[in-house]
Design brief:
This protein has 296 residues and is mainly α. The chain contains 13 helices and no strands. The longest helix has 33 residues, at 54-86. The chain starts with a helix and ends with a helix.
């Protein structure tokens, strides 16, 4: 377990220790992260191709993905709705602007297409995908550490925003509870089941880490669960924000600090932004560490 944790933490902390002060260099880091994600997802697809009886396995994966997604959604909604009542939050009115769905589905389609392309190539050209994805993962974590450093969040800023902290803790607890309850149905040890569901929407990392620990089929399952979470969050945030801010921000998970932040700002106003950043940042920090511990 400690070896697995070190493989995650060392590059992450080394990256966090490197300040990237130049905006153009930070743009290159962000671009490199995107390329690495596609690279690793491609080799995850090649790993899927090596599975015996791939067709039935993929059919089973589809049912498993739907079940996990439904369970996580139910657990998060119940927990975050209760948190909204506790904080007497009746929602926020913000600017209602249309979401650029063409761009959203285009990006998601490219991600899914990358996995599919890797699978198709793997069927005709077997390659040891694990070796390539392992090296790319270490480099990816190093760059993610730089991105987290660039976010500029201090511990003081994190814990001063009580609502953001409570949202993150509620998402954390309800998601892990859902994973533990799903363990018998998934046929996994409880800690592995909790590891599979603990991506909190960070599909570009969760699929990679789960694939590395439990195999490409479980990695693909985790990837699609978190990808669907992000898509549903984008669709529901404007409506949920009118009723309960913790629910709108919390369901976005780790993406509340980046990909979902513009939608949160438009529908919840400027006051929702610090809450979203704190919640998303805490979940982003928790994901790689938690997965390393649970999946070891």
């Amino acid at each position: 377990m400690f070896a697995s944790l070190l493989v995650i933490l060392v590059p992450l902390l080394v990256g966090y220790a490197v300040p990237v002060l130049n905006a153009s260099w930070m743009a290159r880091v962000n671009q490199a992260v995107s390329y690495l994600v596609y690279f690793i997802l491609f080799f995850m697809g090649m790993g899927l191709a090596a599975i015996d009886n791939l067709g039935p396995a993929l059919m089973k994966m589809a049912g498993t993905t739907a079940g996990i997604f439904a369970a996580i959604t139910a657990a998060n909604v119940l927990g975050l709705w209760g948190l909204s009542k506790l904080f007497h939050d009746h929602g926020r009115q913000g600017e209602r602007q249309p979401i650029a769905w063409a761009s959203v589905f285009k990006d998601s389609g490219i991600l899914i297409g990358t996995v599919a392309a890797g699978t198709l190539l793997g069927l005709v050209l077997p390659v040891n995908a694990h070796l390539f994805s392992e090296a790319a993962l270490i480099l990816l974590l190093l760059l993610i550490g730089m991105q987290l450093r660039a976010a500029g969040m201090s511990l003081r800023q994190l814990f001063l925003n009580r609502l953001g902290v409570f949202i993150a803790l509620t998402v954390f607890a309800s998601t892990l509870l859902a994973g533990a309850l799903l363990a018998p149905w998934l046929g996994l040890p409880v800690r592995h089941a909790m590891g599979v569901v603990s991506g909190f929407g960070w599909y570009s990392l969760s699929g990679i880490l789960v694939s590395d620990a439990l195999g490409p089929l479980w990695g693909a399952t985790s990837f699609f669960v978190d990808l669907f979470r992000e898509l549903v969050a984008l669709a529901l945030i404007p409506t949920l924000m009118q009723r309960a801010l913790p629910l709108a921000i919390g369901y976005a998970g780790a993406t509340a600090m980046d990909f979902s932040l513009p939608v949160i700002q438009k529908s919840g106003g400027a006051s929702a932004v610090p809450v979203a950043i704190v919640s998303g940042f805490m979940l982003s920090l928790a994901t790689p560490v938690l997965m390393a511990i649970l999946l070891a």
